[in-house]
Write a structure and sequence with these properties.
alpha/beta; single chain; 10 strands; globular
């Protein structure tokens, strides 16, 4: 129907999953946003509430029960939205308690540099800190900026300052040194050996820093390992995933978020090796894994990071924001 020129789609709650994406796509092609009215929104899975919130210009919901009612599956997310005007604080722990994601445990695995690695990191880090301080003095507006790096990008767009631009290179070197520390590989090998046979573990390596090392060294240790390449076609990725689902792989390395259409599988562990992947991307990976994990014990989510580096703060922020944990720093 139309209400004062606005296009509105009315759903009973069972219709949303079948019809909303088609309607939203059709409206988007026509250059319009969809306004959805849902009867029984509290009976929707929280993932569909989130989809409506992000996919609509306006979402109007009518509840069938009080939000604390046992049948109000989406009640916790709706209550979060009403109280805080955002669903950002609705965590994976809330989703687990609401019963729509696989149970999980989150484990931290801090690793330390070896002596040679530490010396290389300290040299780069000392240069980075010195230059960061000098650039901050040269451009006082950076000290007031909400995002130092975005503001520096804008400054460099106005002036040519090669020394300030080299900060980006030093940051990348510092992050890469933290990511490639040898202790991370040994930790992954240990986690895989503890997971059983087949291990049924996924490793997140979106930056492709660890893929070649893991493929070579895990195969040498007698483990069946493969990679879900972001450049592979859908048919090839589905074939590899079916091998994992059938228990023919100990370890599958993810270079990208797999398609939603993949069938469910038993997943023992998700190992995150590169915590400086954008945290929103990591959240999408965790969401995908917990939504596709079936049978077996709770999924273990292993957060690997090098102590005393920005990785540590990134993983603590990720644990706090997405899992509602309060890990000590």
């Amino acid at each position: 129907p139309r209400v004062h020129g606005t296009r509105v789609v009315v759903y009973r709650h069972p219709q949303v999953e079948r019809r909303f994406n088609q309607h939203a796509s059709r409206f988007a092609k026509a250059g319009r946003r969809i306004t959805a009215v849902v009867d029984g929104c509290d009976l929707l899975d929280p993932v569909w509430i989130a989809t409506l919130l992000f996919g609509c210009s306006q979402f109007i919901g009518f509840t069938r029960h009080a939000l604390g009612h046992a049948q109000a599956v989406g009640g916790r997310m709706l209550a979060t939205l009403f109280q805080q005007q955002t669903i950002a604080s609705y965590t994976f722990a809330d989703a687990e308690e609401d019963g729509w994601l696989r149970p999980f445990d989150v484990l931290r695995h801090p690793v330390a540099f070896e002596e040679g690695e530490f010396q290389a990191y300290r040299q780069v880090n000392d240069r980075f800190i010195t230059l960061h301080r000098d650039v901050g003095r040269r451009y006082p507006e950076l000290g007031e900026a909400l995002d130092f790096w975005d503001s520096l990008h804008r400054i460099l767009g106005r002036v040519a300052d090669h020394q300030a631009a080299s900060l980006f290179t030093l940051r990348e070197q510092r992050e890469e040194l933290a990511q490639i520390t040898h202790a991370k590989f040994e930790t992954v090998a240990k986690l895989l050996s503890e997971a059983g046979s087949p291990a049924r573990c996924l490793v997140c390596d979106f930056e492709q820093i660890w893929t070649a090392v893991l493929l070579r060294n895990l195969a040498e240790r007698g483990m069946a390992v493969n990679v879900l390449k972001h450049s592979a076609g859908l048919a090839a990725r589905e074939e590899i995933w079916r091998r994992f689902e059938a228990g023919k792989l100990d370890c599958l390395i993810l270079q990208d978020l797999p398609p939603l259409r993949m069938v469910g599988a038993r997943i023992n562990r998700l190992i995150v090796m590169t915590p400086l992947t954008p945290l929103s991307t990591l959240a999408c990976v965790v969401d995908w894994v917990l939504a596709h994990a079936v049978s077996g014990p709770a999924v273990r989510i292993d957060l690997l990071y090098t102590t005393g580096t920005p990785e540590q703060e990134a993983m603590m922020d990720f644990a706090d924001t997405c899992f509602g944990l309060r890990f000590s720093r």
